[in-house]
Structures are given as C-alpha cells and as structure tokens.
Design goal:
This protein has eight helices and 15 strands. By secondary structure, the protein is of the alpha+beta class. The strands form four sheets. Strands 5, 6, 7, 8, 9, 11, 13, 14 and 15 form a nine-stranded mixed beta sheet that branches. It has a two-stranded antiparallel sheet with strand order 1-2.
Length: 356
C-alpha cells in the first residue's frame, strides 16, 4: 500500500502487465490519433474513428471488406522507434512511411502512369477527397472568443451535423466534409514557427512550411489539408503570443476573458517579451493527406489535372499539358495534327489513283 495525494492505493502489478503486452490494434492508436485536436477527425481530416471498422469506399487499406490492415502494418516499430514521422511536426525527411515501401516505384502496368510517380505522390491521385464521413475542422478564429449569452452563460452554437461552430472559450469554427485537398510541392523537409520568431502580419503566418518546388528533383506533388485560423500576436514585437488560457489564477483567459493579462502571463512564462499590445493574425498549418485511400476505380483520371479547370491550378512555375498554353508547343502540336491529316488524305488519294 502506498500513498499518493493523501490517499492509499495499490501500485500496478508491472510484472503481470509486462507479461501480457501484445501488438497494438487500431483501438490503441486511434484512442489518441483519431481524437487529435480535441475531437474525432478535428485535426488530420483523414484519420477518424470510422477507420475502426470501415469500407473500401472510405479506405481500401483498413476496410473490413478490403485489405483489413492495422496501423502497425505500415507504421512498424524497431526498438520503440515507430516509423512514420509526421510532416507537420518533424522537420527532417527521416523515418517517413511511403507508399513505395509496399507498392514499389513501378506500381502500374501502364508505363505512362509509372512516369508520373517520379514527380507526383501516390496520394495525389488515390485520395481525391478526405473527411468522407466525419467533418474536419478547416478554420478556427480565436479573435471572436469571449462572447456570452444574454444571461451571462457560455455561448455554444452547432451546425446541422452537431459540430461546434462557436464556443465562448475558443471562438468560431468552420467544418467541412468530402474535402478536395489542396496541393503542394514537397521534398520531405519542413520548417516550423518557433516562439520568438518574427512574423510578417500582412500575409498568413505559416506555422509549418513544407519545403519543395518544381525545380527541386526530390520534390513531388502531395495533397494537403490546410488548416487556417486567426491567432493572437504582438504587433509591436512582431511575434506570436503564447496566451495563458486556463488555471486557477485570475490571469487565465478562461477565468477572466482578458486577452491582455493572458498574453502578459503567458509570454512571461516562456521568458519572452510582451509589448502590452495584442492583435490577431491569419495563420496556416499544413497536414499532408495519407489515409482514406479510395478504390482504384475512383482514383483521379487525367482530366482532373490536365484541363483548364485543373486541381493543380494553384501550382505555378511549370508547364502542365492541358492546363497551360505555350505558343510554340501549341503551334508544333497543331501542326503535327494537321500534317497527320494531310498525310492520311494524300495517302488515300495515291491509293485511289493507283487503283484507277
């Protein structure tokens, strides 16, 4: 018998626990990862509790009528080191999980499709949308926090699906289902905002920056969820503020709803200066999409990218056939088409003349 917090308790039987350790199942991983960000599918968008028992339409890998894989089939472990470092928080391109570990770099029978793998991640074509069942949070505005009902009680509002769209403590939220990803060039490395770094408040602050571009041979196009928001910052020092949100003291924001006191106390706790002024700035965070792989017959077709109304319209700096125009290439292409038709006509006339 031992005492903890003034109470007696029996310590766990660690020998018994160690002798009954087994391989983790979906429930072990999902207990945390499905609920990241404070609720089901809030943060990632492609990792939700429906993956506990799902269909091929949601995810071909984890589907009970599909491959019925567990998380550890891809995220294997060696000496407590779990593979699959998250791009949003891990800076170096190390210990990642990639599709070609199982599917190789030549996954298609079609050679043209296999050439795409060099510059396009598998997920780009094989995950046309995410948040297929549960909504995911796409926007969070802290600047609207602190509003109460007329009787002074906490104000909470919901949308038709039961998602919280406003809460006095945290502000406003926007949710989406069946979300079409945004697309970026990514070489596996990332940068992250660190407390104390100066920001440019005239543009959205990137809390994590995925590095890569067309001219980087190690970069490929990947699908991402972009979580946008508004967060508190110091306009004089041009730094993000770490506010003191909760606690039993009078400086905690959720006790007094005083941003100034919360900002001063929070920045003092991390030994960073606070000018005494605060405002709110737009922020962006990028979450690469890796789960909720669609059945192959529902993967993107050529027209999804190689058209004027392309999914890749926001990616600039390179020529994409079908999406972009180039006078020289267009002239050559049309000329070849015309010459081909002329060749067919001339050939037909020669055959007709010979037969006569």
């Amino acid at each position: 018998m031992k005492k903890f917090g003034g109470k007696n308790f029996l310590p766990p039987n660690y020998s018994l626990i160690a002798q009954n350790v087994g391989s983790p199942e979906r429930e072990n991983c999902g207990t945390c990862h499905f609920l990241g960000g404070g609720g089901n599918n809030v943060k990632h968008g492609d990792i939700a509790n429906e993956l506990m028992e799902t269909t091929r339409q949601v995810d071909v890998h984890m589907a009970v009528d599909g491959a019925s894989m567990n998380c550890t089939d891809c995220h294997n472990t060696n000496k407590h080191n779990i593979s699959g470092n998250l791009y949003s928080i891990a800076s170096a391109d190390l210990n990642r999980v990639t599709c070609d570990q199982c599917h190789t770099t030549q996954p298609h029978r079609n050679k043209t499709l296999n050439k795409h793998v060099i510059r396009i991640a598998c997920q780009t074509c094989h995950i046309p949308e995410f948040a297929k069942k549960s909504s995911t949070k796409m926007y969070w505005d802290w600047s609207t926090a602190g509003e109460f009902n007329s009787d002074g009680t906490t104000r909470v509002e919901y949308d038709s699906l039961g998602n919280i769209t406003y809460h006095t403590q945290k502000g406003s939220f926007q949710w989406e289902n069946n979300v079409v990803p945004e697309y970026m060039w990514f070489n596996g490395d990332a940068r992250h905002y660190l407390l104390g770094d100066q920001i440019d408040s005239t543009t959205p602050v990137q809390l994590n920056t995925l590095i890569g571009d067309y001219h980087d041979k190690n970069s490929r196009i990947i699908p991402v969820k972009v979580h946008r928001g508004k967060q508190i910052f110091d306009p004089e020092n041009k730094t993000m503020i770490l506010p003191h949100l909760f606690g039993h003291d009078s400086a905690a924001y959720w006790n007094t709803y005083d941003w100034d006191r919360a900002a001063e106390t929070g920045m003092k706790s991390v030994d960073l200066p606070y000018s005494g002024k605060y405002s709110f700035v737009s922020t962006e965070m990028y979450w690469p999409i890796n789960h909720m792989v669609a059945p192959k017959e529902e993967s993107l077709d050529c027209e999804a990218c190689h058209t004027r109304d392309s999914r890749l319209n926001d990616l600039a700096g390179f020529y994409l056939p079908g999406r972009d125009s180039n006078r020289l290439l267009d002239f050559i292409g049309f000329s070849l088409i015309i010459l081909t038709f002329l060749g067919v006509i001339i050939h037909s006339l020669l055959r007709a003349t010979k037969e006569c």
